[in-house]
Amino acid sequence: MDPRIESLIAELSSVGADTVARGLALASGGNLSARIDEDTFVVTGSGTWLDRLTPADFSVMNLAGEVVGGSPRPSSEWKLHQRSYLTRPDVNAVVHVHPQHAVLLDALGHAVRLITLDHAYYVRSVGTTPYFPNGSDELADSAAEQAQQHDCIIMGHHGCSALGDSIGMAFRRALNLEEAATATYRALLLGDTTTTFPAEAFEHLHHA
Predict the structure, then answer these.
(1) Contact 55, 136 (CB under 8 A)
(2) CA torsion angle for 207, 89, 29, 27 (degrees, to 10)?
(3) CATH homologous superfamily of domain 3-207?
(4) How sure is the predictor about 208, in pLDDT bands with cuts at 50, 70 and 90?
(5) What is the pTM of this model?
């Protein structure tokens, strides 16, 4: 196996185990990918459990949507990853997980509020899509459209997609999105509907 692909698989497998341990996905929910080069990416295979990944559980695909190596059965969500890479040449990893608080808030019509410094810095903004069937062109295309402006996208009644220039950054964003959602949920329980990270500080943070 190409050493670069081997390294990416090892890192994605570690993130997969951490994803399940932190409750961001159950069983075979969620999928992970990383860009190999301009035209190819590696993605978890269909039905794989994120905390039990082995090298045989990954497919290598090109941006035309063809399997060119590894498992012949990529995740049913491969289009989500493919179209994110096509839309965002700067993105090198996509973490798609099923965080409970983020999905619940979105389903109930509440925006995820960025409250802490880490939320503001890493998440920055949150895109949303309506519900579309998993693996569908509509889901992949709507998420890719949101990815033009956001690094974190909540897909209605489904999960979230976090993008990054590295696997570590994509996962960090997924973690901070769910932490922001959890904080928002708790704030709502306390009756607070407005608190967010200070707007002036936010602007300074991203334009300094």
Answers:
(1) no
(2) -90
(3) Class II aldolase/adducin N-terminal domain (3.40.225.10)
(4) low
(5) 0.96
